[in-house]
Each structure stands twice: as C-alpha cells, then as structure tokens.
Amino acid sequence: MKLDPLNVGDVFIKAMHQMFADPQQAIENNLELAKNYTNLWNNIAQKLLGNDVDSLYKGESKDRRFKDETWEENPGFNFIKQSYYLNSSWIKDITRQVEGLDPKDSKKLDFYTRVLIDAMAPTNFFLSNPEVIKETVKTHGANILKGAQNFLSDLGRSKGKFQISTTNLKDFEVGRNLAITPGKVIFQNDLIQLLQYSPSTPTVYETPVLIIPAWINKYYILDLQPENSYVRWLVAQGYTVFMISWINPNAMQSNKTFDDYMSEGALAAISQVCKATGQKEIHCMGYCLGGTLLAATIAHIKSQKQYCSVKTATFLTSLVDFKEAGDIGVFIDEEQIEFLEKRMSEKGYLEGNEMAATFSMIRSNDMIWSFYINNYMLGKDPFPFDILYWNADSTRLPAKMHSFYLRNMYLKNLLVKPNGLTLCKTPIDLHKVDVPVYLLSTREDHIAPWMSTYKATQIYSGPIRFTLTASGHVAGVANHPDKKKYNYWTNEKLAHTPSEWFKHAKIHEGSWWLDWNHWAATKSGEKIAARKVTNGLEDAPGSFVKVHL
Predict the structure, then answer these.
(1) Whose CB has fewer CB within 10 Å in the chain, the N or C terminal residue?
(2) What are the tens digits of pLDDT across the range 424-438?
(3) By C-alpha distance, which of 4, 7, 8, 2 is closest to 114?
C-alpha cells in the first residue's frame, strides 16, 4: 500500500528546501513571530490587570469554535486562543512566501497547511477546550464515557473506513420522511429509474421539467422533507416534473462509461419525457455533475443536427471549465489518479465513503472537527439534520466512468475545448449550447467555485441568466422560499469577469427558486389539464435510491 496516497509529502519537502535556501528570510520570519508574541504577552498582561483591551489576534467573525465566553473572559484561555490565531497566520504567511513551486503544488501546500492548522486548534483537545471542561465537571465525566460509546459505535458501522456520525441516522428514512413527493417510476434501464411526479394543481404548463442530478450522491437532495422539497415546490407551481434516480453501482456496472451515462441516462430520459408528455421540447435541469452531463448532452444533440428536444437548460452549481476547480483540485494529479485507479480495479468501483471523506476534508472544521467535539468530547448525539443524512447516504462510482471524468475533465480540462472530447461518437463543442440558459451558483461553494462556474457564460451561445445565491453547494440550492434564509444576486447584464458581474449585481431577499420560476414560466407554454400518472413500474421514490453502501 502506498504510504502517501494523497501525494502530499513531496510538496512539503520541496517547500522546506525552498525555505532553507533563504536563511535570511527564515531569520526575519522568526524575529517577526517573537515580536508578535511580545505584543501578545503585553496584551494578556493588560487583561490580567483588569484593563478593558481588545484582543490583538482575532479570527473570522463566523468562527464558531471559540463561541464559549471563557475564551474572552479568562486571560489564560484568551492567550491560548490568540496564540492559535497568531501561529496560524504566521504559518500561512511563510508557506505562501515559498517560491519555486508550480501552481498545483502551491495550492496543495496551502490546502494541507490549512487542514493541519484546523486539526491543531485548541478546541480539539480536552484540556484546552473550556466548554468540554465545564461539561466534564457538570456530568462528573459522563460525557467522556458517552463519547467513548459514540466512538465505538461509529467504529463498528464504518466497515473499515472510519466515518464520524454527522446526524442521527435513525431519524430519517427514504420513502418514510424523505423523498415522499407522490409519483411513480415510469421507466428503468441499467443505469436509471425515471420518476414522474403526480400533479398537485388542476392545470400544468405544457413544457415539462426533467431534473438530472449528480450520481456522486442521490437525487433526493432536491426532494427532502415536504417543507423543504424543491420537487414538491415545483409541482405546486404547476410543472410536470421528472427526475432521474441513478443506480448505486456495484461490480456489475464497473464497465459503465461516461458515454453510457449520456446514452442510458440523459438521452434516454429526455426521450422518455417527450414520449410521456407528447412534447417535442422540455426544460432540462442539471445539478453539479448532472449539469456537466447536461451541457455535453445538448452539445451532442446539436452536433447530430437533430431537432433539439431541450427547450431550456438550467445548470445548478455545475462546472464545465475545470481549470480552477477549487480545493477539490488538490486531490487530482497523475499520481493520485493512478493510485485511485488501482484501488478501483480491485472492485470495479469507487466506494462512496472515499468520496465522502474527500468532501469532508475540504470543510474539515464543519464536517469533521465540530462533530468530533460534539460526539466524542462533549458526549452528545448529533442533531437530526436531513441534509447531513443525505450527505452520509453515499453512492459508489463505476471505475471506468470515474477515471474518464477525472482525467479528461479535471486533469486535462478537455470538455471546455471545442471538439476536445468525443462522447457517444460525437465531438463535443459546448459553444453549440444555444438554448436559453439559467445558471445558478452559490457564493460559498467548495465543490464548484462560483467564479469558475461563471465561465460558462462566456461559452454557451444562447441567452443566459446568471444568478448567485448565498451559502454553499447544497444549502444554497435546497433553499425553500418559506424559510427566508438566504438571499441571492442578479445582474441583467453579463460581464466578462465574475468580479465585474458581482460589482453591479442587485441583491434580493429570499430564494432563487422564485427567480427561476419567473424566468421559466414565460418559456413553458400554455396551461393544460394536469397530467395524471396512472401506470408505473413502482411508486416513487423507487428502489434504486434505497440501495445503501
């Protein structure tokens, strides 16, 4: 087994060589740190004397790790907190000063430095976390015993790949209180079940909506509980909604390719929706990787000179230009892909928990350390949260498809190059996407950074509406208007750069769902009698989505 599968060691060794090559800079860095510590000691001394002085070293205002008042009121803990921020800033500065690294190595150095800094936070240790100390005194150590029980429980269910619980899994069940919008499976093949949802209004728009979710996770992020289900809301607005539910692959699907996901997935679903509704054109909506597939599928249809059955395209947090893919890019280089391919060749697929672990590392404070403290140090059960249940309900990925995706899109960025990729025997040119497009991105997206998804506005040739919503890759999308939680930004004029677009964007209260509905309703034809779903293979949510790891 490779000792360094993430290919991190070489980067830190290169960085150390560069640092030692300039001893004068190293001396100056250490003198600067000593100076700052002198200032910090003076600050703490003032606090000990009872003087009301502000802390010198502060983190982000949203840093919830230090929310306990003891971090400010107790000079000892305040010193620990400030020294952590001081050390963190100093380490980040000296690693960013390193010269002579290629851009990919620089990003990897920066990312893993941040991961290490997060891991070394004083809140992650029993004796330097006042909240844990208080809880231990209050419960006479019962929190430690309960934390050990929680740890052993997670260890037992992890099946060799340790996973910390992020929600109470017993509180949710697909088909019971998640993914319960009424409907039926109207079509099935080796890769998909196609769901058609029952109408909840007497009339519906002529043009139906097909949603193509990512197959990295399950579709029901868009059909959670009734009070925050995007699918249920769309149906209530008078749309006939169809959803692809991807199979959770095993060794039998190991040879499935990206071509298969287009032909047996997107193209098959488009054909079936047209057949079920009698419409020649439909709205298509792709989420994340589903949006990447949708863009390629439309380009394929256009290249075949067929009558395009896609009337409009909506892309939710979807990358097509992978040049600047954010933190996920640090996990993708030739060495890591080769290691991953060897792992996948053993079973024919990538285990879902491996992908989940990658995403968790990108947001380690939120997805790892906060639960480490809550579950194991405070001895509490995680809060029931439907999005985190969905996040834990991982899916596998076929080896051939995943290798193709990583190599040709992330590593070589061929999708954005005209005719750079051939899918289903068709050279793909995304400039041929000339249908009306609605592009949604989220401002705090760690998976598909919005400044990268914005690049699609310079690629597609049809009319484009770009909308930016607050929050991240998941919460920003699954944002019901009734919650009144996140706002969004619009700008009727596209700019050449995302920063220029944002400078002149208008902020709106509420959910982007309302904006999309206003955009789509004018393109959806007349209202007709609601399409009832009478025949089906089985009731929604279907059997594919219920297959767990």
Answers:
(1) N
(2) 999 999 999 999 999
(3) 8
